[in-house]
Structure formats: C-alpha cells, structure tokens
Amino acid sequence: MSSSLAAILAILILLSPLATSSSTNTTTAVAGDGDSPTAYDLLEAFDFPIGLLPKGVKSYELDRGNGKFYAHWDGSCSFSLEGSYQLKYKSTISGCISKDRLTSLSGVSVKVLFFWLNIVEVIRKGDELEFSVGIASASFPIDNFYECPQCGCGLDCVNGKIRKLKLKMNNSPSASSV
C-alpha cells in the first residue's frame, strides 16, 4: 500500500510542473493595483487612443490568445460629445481587440437622430478612426480621442460636472432713443 501511495505522489510531483506551466493567456487587472497595465495602456498597445474608453474603468480582462476583452465600470456611463453625439456604455463592454481593430463590440451605443445604434466595430486607418454600426459607418480624426471623456459630462467637465458657459455681458448702459 505504501508503494502505491509513493507512486501516486511521484506522478503528482512529475505532473505538477505541467499544471503550473499551462497557465491561461488571460490578463485580468483591477484599477489602481499598480502592477498590471491599465485598460488605457492596453488600448495604446494595440495602436488606439485612450479616449475610446471613458474615465473610470474599474477592471478588465483580456485573453491575449484570441483578443477577447471585457472592461467594467461601477455602472452604466453616458455623455454627449460636441453636443451632437450621445454615447452610452453599459457597465460591462466586450469585444475582440487586435492591432488597429476592435470587432464584435457589445455594450457601446450611439444615438443617431431618434435611434440608439450599437457600435459594433472600430478600425484605425492611419490618422482616422472608422466607427461602424453595422449598416453604416463614419470616420473621425484620431486626435479627437486623445482625451478620455467622463461619464455624465463627456469632455466638457469641471470637477465631474458639465462646464457651464458664462456669457460675457456688456456692462455699458443700453442706448435709449430720445
């Protein structure tokens, strides 16, 4: 009985390096852990600007083998850009990332006229990013995406709130006709 136990232990010891070396090729990180690259760092590693993701990613997962990724926020996120585009991010978005390509996107939508359409693909073509909603696409200069928008106020934020425009008033008394 002791020889069979010794044989089982020997097999387990011999197999243990195989078990530890066959680790998955998945990166998981939590914001602020300091040891792992951030979700924004990973965007840059795949040749995308950080502004594709709003501020506040809490954690992410990336399978480097197939490019499948997930990014997580505390809740959903919505904001307007330049007053004409409204965007929504669900609390978790997913897709596949490779150099210059984000495909099979899920969880990001844009309002076009009165309809919300899912953004399903983003392709970098030189200094432009092409966003596809499946039936249509639009291209924008990449320099529009160097800054991360903030949930609630997009790029027009001051301390997490929409910046209010102050109208400059003319202090001179108004003219009156005599």
Describe the protein.
With 178 residues, the protein is an alpha+beta fold. It has one domain: at5g01610, DUF538 DOMAIN (Roll). 15% of the residues lie in helices and 39% in strands. It contains two helices and twelve strands; from the N terminus they run H-E-H-E-E-E-E-E-E-E-E-E-E-E. Strands 1, 2, 3, 4, 5, 6, 7, 8, 9 and 10 form a ten-stranded antiparallel sheet that branches. It has a two-stranded antiparallel sheet with strand order 11-12. A hairpin with a 3-residue loop joins strand 4 and strand 5. The radius of gyration is 25 Å and the shape is globular. The relative contact order is 0.12.
Low-confidence stretches: 1-24, 164-178
User: Count of DSSP E strands?
Assistant: 12
CATH topology: at5g01610, DUF538 DOMAIN
The CATH architecture is: Roll
Please state the average pLDDT score: 77
What is the CATH C level class, in words?
Answer: Mainly Beta
Task: Find the structural class using helix and strand composition.
Answer: alpha+beta
Major beta sheet summary: 10 strands, antiparallel
Label this structure with key terms.
single chain; 178 residues; alpha+beta; at5g01610, DUF538 DOMAIN; ten-stranded antiparallel β-sheet; two-stranded antiparallel sheet; 2 helices; disordered N terminus
Would you kindly provide a brief summary of this structure?
By secondary structure, this protein is of the alpha+beta class.
